[in-house]
Design goal:
Blueprint (H helix, E strand, L loop, with lengths): L6 H7 L13 H4 L5 H11 L2 E5 L5 E5 L3 H6 L20 H9 L8 E6 L5 E11 L4 E8 L1 H37 L4 E5 L5 E4 L1 H7 L19 H14 L2 E8 L4 E12 L2 E9 L12 H8 L3 E5 L5 E4 L1 H6 L23 H12 L1 E10 L5 E10 L8 E7 L18 H6 L6 H23 L4 H8 L3 H11 L12
């Protein structure tokens, strides 16, 4: 049962000015003999806030049918007898005046921002209704905070989707560059029919028939005696997965090449990536050193360099992180080309290796050929001494790790864990300045939280003047200072 509405609103409604009931069927039947008390009850049930405004735009009465708004807004006595502009934010003055000046028979719902007792803005959906013969106006408002929260979550979800789409487009662009510029023929086959679905330019030249009008199947590229072996290779990849390879002879050229096939899935479909390499040799995984085979297939990148940091060997994972298509493209190159800041991080690693023999969990970044940046941790060891020594680097991608439970700071600040991770990457004076800002922001947020956003009490708790507190709130982007008279 609703609490009894204010008698003041009942008095306003007793003047019997007709309330528009546009479009309501049989309005004369249902509302015949409607008393002022019943009309006030209807108004009380239909709104979360009720404001009575007289012809001079002075607030005469305020009611809070919603208990939530009663806790957020000042007491009714704080608004009574004052112009309506004190209750509405500066951005809503023009809207409310337009609503008050509008046609009485066509009420419109508009969004208005009301000021809470803490100075924050609360969005309400409002309309005005003219009643009585004294030009009294009743403003009815509905709490839209729940809807605003849903809209904000929708916007955040949309932004997250757009970021994910951007990452997918970037990944596709890198894939296209690698696929189109690779010197070796690369094809993507349907695992069931062995039909060529996509081929890079090098493979298209091989698949095109001499007349140039059509393409030929993959098996036609090899001599007839090797075609059953190719079919068996593709069937083995389809059933066993992984990467399988065989040495076959190209038709017409009598030239041996290595065919490497790898199974992968895309949108519930099984596909096979086929590479042709005329210079590589087939490796029997069963005859290789098991440790070398493990390093080659490891999810972490492994690199072997000479004492000067020039690469002598690298596994497939490093090639993927560095966005390199072939292993021979990195041989003889300095690791400094991809690892960390040029001329800084690698020199630090080499100096520690010469002094201590090993380095653990050195945080830096790895740069790809096409601009990709990956956060990595490097552990390294000196394999042998002297001018012919070797250095081994284990590089782990840590960019995909889920962050731990840290307290985030609003605005542009960093968490404490993020600041500690910047040691060695940015100058000390920048770290000290950012740490000072972080501590100051945390103290202000804690004070506001303890005082329930009472800024006067928060300033006293922090030992600041209210003007200084507002300066710091504006600096860190805390709170909603729009339309706050105290700030002015």
């Amino acid at each position: 049962m609703l609490p009894a509405p204010s008698l003041g609103i009942s008095t306003v409604l007793k003047e019997r000015s007709p309330i528009p009931l546009l479009g309501l069927q049989s309005s004369s039947t249902w509302f015949e003999g409607l008393t002022a008390e019943v009309a006030a009850g209807l108004v009380y049930a239909a709104a979360d806030i009720i404001v009575v405004i007289d012809r001079n735009a002075i607030v005469r009465e305020v009611l809070y049918p919603s208990g939530d708004l009663a806790e957020e807004f000042p007491p009714p006595a704080a608004w009574t007898g004052k112009p309506w502009m004190h209750a509405v934010g500066a951005d809503g003055h023009a809207k409310l005046q337009e609503m008050l000046d509008g046609s009485p028979g066509q009420p419109r719902w508009r969004h208005l921002n009301f000021l809470s007792h803490a100075g924050a803005s609360i969005a309400l959906l409002c309309t005005v209704v003219r009643v009585g013969h004294g030009d009294q106006t009743i403003l009815l408002g509905r709490d839209m905070r729940a809807m605003s929260g849903l809209q904000q979550r929708l916007v955040q979800a949309q932004q997250s989707l757009e970021r994910d789409y951007g990452k997918l487009r970037d990944a596709e662009a890198r894939y296209r560059v690698l696929f189109k510029t690779a010197a070796e023929p690369i094809m993507i086959l349907d695992a069931a029919s062995h039909r060529v679905l996509e081929a890079n330019p090098a493979a298209s030249q091989l698949l095109t028939r001499p007349d140039g009008r059509s393409t030929r199947p993959l098996v036609d590229l090899f001599v007839p005696t090797d075609r059953p072996q190719l079919e068996g290779l593709l069937q083995q990849v389809r059933t066993q997965g992984g990467t399988q390879q065989a040495e076959l002879t190209l038709a017409g050229e009598s030239k041996a090449c290595v065919v490497a096939a790898t199974l992968f899935r895309q949108q519930s479909a099984s596909l096979i990536l086929v590479r042709l390499d005329g210079e590589a040799q087939v490796h029997d995984a069963g005859k290789r050193n098991p440790l070398l085979n493990l390093i080659e297939r490891a999810p972490d990148a492994f690199v072997v360099t000479d004492p000067a940091g020039r690469i002598q060997a690298a596994n497939t994972t490093f090639l993927d992180l560095a966005e390199i298509a072939r292993a021979d493209q990195v041989l003889g190159e300095s690791l400094d080309r991809w690892l960390g800041r040029p001329g800084i991080d690698l020199d630090v690693l080499l100096g520690n290796l010469r002094q201590h023999g090993s380095v653990r969990l050195f945080a830096t970044r790895l740069r790809g050929e096409f601009g990709a940046l990956v956060d990595v941790e490097v552990s390294a060891a000196l394999i042998s001494e002297g001018a012919t020594g070797r250095l081994g680097f284990a590089i782990r991608d840590v960019g995909a790790r889920l962050p731990g439970p840290t307290r985030e700071v609003t605005g542009t600040g960093r968490s404490v864990e993020q600041l500690t991770q910047l040691i060695g990457r940015v100058p000390l004076k920048d770290l000290v300045r950012e740490a000072t800002d972080l501590i100051e922001r945390l103290c202000i947020e804690a004070a506001l939280e303890l005082t329930t956003d009472n800024r006067a009490a928060a300033a006293e708790m922090l030992g600041l003047s209210r003007q200084s507190l507002y300066v710091k709130l504006r600096r860190y982007g805390l709170g909603d200072l729009a339309g706050n008279g105290e700030e002015a």
